[in-house]
Design a protein that fits this description.
By secondary structure, this protein is α+β, with helices and mostly antiparallel strands. The protein has helices at 2-36, 95-104, 110-125; strands at residues 44-51, 56-63, 69-77, 84-86. It has a 4-stranded antiparallel β-sheet with strand order 1-2-3-4. The longest helix is centred in the N-terminal third of the chain and has 35 residues, at 2-36. The radius of gyration is 18 Å and the shape is elongated.
């Protein structure tokens, strides 16, 4: 019984340590993106999460004032080994185009779902 408790304790400590590493990686990546686009005050950085049945996707997207995607990065995976990858296929698209895709299609991938959530958040922030 004591061996089981020791194993459980070690697993809990390991999980806590790896969670801290993942948070530090996330913070460092967001700081890098912020510094990279700090020169242009009209750019906005949005981050959001899409939780699938097993895999979680974190998306960091930089958009300009017209809603065009300047930079899109996604971190997809189960563990701390998941890293942000640049998603070039979304560069140059607008959030309005993503919204139109959502209206025309039933199913979208997790990245597009997050971009649609960013579109909704951005349109909520714009006063009528």
């Amino acid at each position: 019984m004591q061996v089981l408790l020791i194993i459980l304790f070690v697993l809990m400590v390991t999980q806590s340590f790896t969670s801290i590493l993942q948070v530090k990686y996330y913070q460092k990546f967001i700081q890098k993106i912020t510094r990279e686009y700090d020169f242009c005050p009209s750019y906005e950085l949005y981050t959001d999460v899409s939780k699938g049945s097993l895999i979680k996707t974190i998306v960091a997207v930089v958009i300009d004032e017209q809603g065009e995607i300047i930079s899109c990065h996604a971190c997809k995976g189960l563990t701390i080994f998941a890293r942000f990858k640049t998603k070039e296929m979304y560069h140059g698209l607008t959030l309005t185009e993503i919204h139109q895709r959502k209206l025309n299609q039933n199913r979208m991938n997790q990245i597009e779902n997050v971009l649609h959530k960013v579109y909704l958040r951005k349109t909520e922030a714009i006063p009528n």
